[in-house]
Amino acid sequence: MLKVLIGASIVFFLATVPATWLLMLFLGNIGLELSYWGTFPLGILASALLAGASTYG
């Protein structure tokens, strides 16, 4: 059970890195200097939105 939880959290972080990184680049260009952890909640939402949109297309 613990191995599954650790594995799932690693997969979760790896799945949200691209969206979070791109959001950091975009927000940095418009003047908001946010760290990775500041952008992470929005990265989670963007990741879920992209995953949900790709299943119906």
Give the topology, please:
Layout lengths: L1 H28 L6 H21 L1
Distance, first to last CA = 34 Å
Q: Largest sheet at a glance?
A: none
Q: What value does the average pLDDT take?
A: 86
Number of strand segments: 0
Rounded Rg: 13 Å
Specify the helix fraction band.
over 70%
> How would you spell out the order of helices and strands?
HH
Assess the beta-strand content as a share of residues: under 5%
The backbone outline, from C-alpha atoms, is: flat
* Helix/strand class: mainly alpha
Count structural domains: 1
Provide a count of the helices.
Answer: 2
Show unreliable segments: none
Write a structural description.
With 57 residues, the protein is mostly helical. The protein has one domain (2-51). Helix content is 86%, strand content 0%. The chain is built from two helices and no strands. The protein has helices spanning 2-29, 36-56. Helix 1 (2-29) crosses helix 2 (36-56). The longest helix is centred in the first third of the chain and has 28 residues, at 2-29. The protein is flat. The mean pLDDT is 86.
